[in-house]
Amino acid sequence: xxxxxxxxxxxxxxxxxxxxxxxxxxxxxxxxxxxxxxxxxxxxxxxxxxxxxxxxxxxxxxxxxxxxxxxxxxxxxxxxxxxxxxxxxxxxxxxxxxxxxxxxxxxxxxxxxxxxxxxxxxxxxxxxxxxxxxxxxxxxxxxxxxxxxxxxxxxxxxxxxxxxxxxxxxxxxxxxxxxxxxxxxxxxxxxxxxxxxxxxxxxxxxxxxxxxxxxxxxxxxxxxxxxxxxxxxxxxxxxxxxxxxxxxxxxxxxxxxxxxxxxxxxxxxxxxxxxxx
Amino acid sequence: xxxxxxxxxxxxxxxxxxxxxxxxxxxxxxxxxxxxxxxxxxxxxxxxxxxxxxxxxxxxxxxxxxxxxxxxxxxxxxxxxxxxxxxxxxxxxxxxxxxxxxxxxxxxxxxxxxxxxxxxxxxxxxxxxxxxxxxxxxxxxxxxxxxxxxxxxxxxxxxxxxxxxxxxxxxxxxxxxxxxxxxxxxxxxxxxxxxxxxxxxxxxxxxxxxxxxxxxxxxxxxxxxxxxxxxxxxxxxxxxxxxxxxxxxxxxxxxxxxxxxxxxxxx
Lengths: 277, 267
Description:
The complex is a heterodimer of chains A (277) and B (267).
Chain A: E1 3-12, E2 21-29, E3 33-37, H1 44-51, E4 59-64, E5 67-68, H2 74-78, E6 81-84, H3 97-107, H4 112-125, H5 141-154, E7 159-163, H6 171-188, E8 191-195, H7 199-204, E9 207-212, E10 215-220, H8 222-226, H9 229-235, H10 241-251, H11 263-276
Parallel strand pairs in A: 3-8, 3-9, 6-7, 7-8
Antiparallel strand pairs in A: 1-2, 1-4, 4-5, 9-10
Chain B: H1 18-21, H2 24-40, H3 44-61, H4 65-72, H5 76-89, E1 95-99, E2 102-105, H6 106-132, H7 135-146, H8 156-186, H9 196-227, H10 246-256, H11 258-266
Antiparallel strand pairs in B: 1-2
Helix pairs in contact in B: 2-6, 2-7, 3-6, 3-11, 4-6, 5-6, 7-8, 8-9
InterPro entries (chain B): ABC/ECF_trnsptr_transmembrane, EcfT
Pfam families (chain B): CbiQ
Protein name (chain B): Energy-coupling factor transporter transmembrane protein EcfT
């Protein structure tokens, strides 16, 4: 596999503040989903903004597809990167859904004919085709985030950056948006990088990066991280539902395995367990 | 406090009539033109003719005349003040009644009626524009019509974008204002009672959060726009293409005929 992002010795600080990012090194493979978690102020959003070229790091290097990111090529690189932000209202630029999806294409000077087709396709991919002419005020938060996703899909990116994209949504909206992200990832072979507080989102990732005080302190699979009780309690991270359930079951001396399960797998495990008993 | 939802002026009613389908540029040009024409007319025949033209246009839009009349209600006080000013402060003609600086003259009566008709015609025509055209289309049309000024270094595209973002933000900010007001009310701030000074002071608790909020929103929106590849001054394409049709040219020609008719009616 080829690594799509390679970050070496990245440092960033806002003026007259302490360092936000301190010697960050990591790579992201093509097609991988990397979740970045950490507490408020740990620097994870700053990292994402550096990767999109919205912030310029003081030192260090970012390679996107083996190209070193600099001021000249950032606009070009950005065309292959799509970013979704936290607040659905504050990233809705145009007055209707279709117009908003077309915004990035307008910026890339895509011919109107092709634009029509791509907007249509992108809206269909997120299931918002029926809302093409609606105004943002007529949509729910989850629907607005789906429009933002469509806007990124229309760009035909290779890399999607999610900056707490589901944090302002209700549970239903969050589930739906995550489900769509999962589908889009498969359909368009996207590499995903998501900054999140949401444990369900982190579990869906292939790999998790834990940042604390501007340092990467852990870079491992969700299974390894969420079964590591000392790490979880040390960093005060939330425990996934299946792990909580396992702990409770252990209290009642129900035999549960050490490995990590998502909900579906866990249900399957419980079935086999009950048929054995 | 006046209910914002009552204001029909500036709202859009979806439809598929002849007027709805017209090119927004044509509609915008015609509305400007009509306002000018209204000031040319100065006698009964002229106004009767213009009223018929207005009614015809409204008929073409297939929107009920009642909607337009309801739209006048919030402007009632404004119209009333204009009428009273004209009635009592116009001199000339036969004097019916006089008291101090107030005079009621035949000229005053005539001009107050004419001014009212003028006012209503202008409101009806501009309401017709906004009712049949989305704010976005109006912004597009304005940008397109300003295009020739780009030669004089007017940043037409930036103005167009600013206009469209402003329009897009109106409902969002209105929602937020309602929320901030409710939150401040919950903390015991009274927006509706007290003297002017007290009310002004209460308003500060709405204005400052709203300003801070719009600054934050603007920063975040700018970041999102940059992330989506927006560079000011760079050539862009436009998703919405305006299509000037034969019917638009025809409508323009027909409306241009109003002036000769008016001049003829004047004799």
